[in-house]
Design brief:
The complex is a heterodimer of chains A (114) and B (117). With 114 residues, chain A is mainly β. Chain A contains no helices and eleven strands. Classes of the chains: A mainly beta (114), B mainly beta (117). Chains A and B meet through strand 4, strand 5, strand 9 and strand 10 of A and strand 5, strand 6 and strand 10 of B.
Chain lengths: 114, 117
């Protein structure tokens, strides 16, 4: 199956600074890479995703980059705000059984300091 | 639309008791999933149903069974609960199986917090 490693496990930044979270994956056939944000006690919510035929995708202050050769992808948050504080999970799709599934990284606790 | 609805939100069980976690979605999605979330371990797939009438094991299926009752509903059953099954359980759905030739993000419910004593 797929293995997804996520770093760092915790990240503290000053408000207004940028934050970068990195993930690596093992299955070269993976073709879909979503990022989820989970606030304390809440459900994971999709914030951005990227497919393997695209190298970068942006949505306002959030961007994701993908390096297929190196099998890693990263989440970039610019101009961080206190409401960005949450746990962020990366994931990669892989085929097993009857359909594609997602394997999640172990999460990054982002704290934005005012 | 409510999206993905899970019941109950909280539950405490004794070791050996059985329980069924319920999940329903109103987005007309074909695929549904059950995950467990433990501290420091992210989300791990227990079982999934790519379409109505099919179910498959995920990464951690031992001790669980599932039923895809219809297109809307996908339940998770613990036949004989063990303390190791204490966790937060999330149900998710997607229009079609995630990945492949089109973007099919998964949408999550609010979770069921399950404690087994």
């Amino acid at each position: 199956g797929e293995n997804v490693e996520q770093h760092p496990s915790t990240l503290s930044v000053q408000e207004g600074d940028s934050a970068v979270i990195k993930c690596t994956y093992s299955d070269s056939a993976s073709n879909y890479f979503p990022w989820y944000k989970q606030e304390l006690g809440k459900r994971p919510q999709l914030i951005i995703d990227i497919r393997s035929n695209v190298g970068e995708k942006k949505d306002q202050r959030i961007a994701v980059t993908l390096n297929k050769t190196a099998k890693h992808f990263s989440l970039h948050i610019t101009e961080t705000q206190p409401e960005d504080s949450a746990v962020y999970f990366c994931a990669a799709s892989f085929f097993s059984g009857s359909a594609r599934q997602l394997t999640f990284g172990s999460g990054t606790q982002l704290t934005v300091l005012p | 639309n409510a999206g993905v609805t899970q019941t109950p939100k909280f539950q405490v069980l004794k070791t050996g008791q059985s329980m069924t976690l319920q999940c329903a979605q109103d987005m007309n999605h074909n695929s549904m999933y059950w995950y467990r979330q433990d501290p420091g371990m992210g989300l791990r797939l227990i079982y999934y149903s790519a379409s109505e009438g099919t179910t498959d094991k995920g990464e951690v299926p031992n001790g669980y069974n599932v039923s895809r009752l219809n297109k809307r509903e996908f339940s998770l059953r613990l036949e004989s609960a063990a303390p190791s099954q204490t966790s937060v359980y999330f149900c998710a759905s997607s229009e079609r199986p995630t990945g492949g030739n089109s973007n099919q993000p998964q949408h999550f419910g609010d979770g069921t917090r399950l404690s087994i004593l």
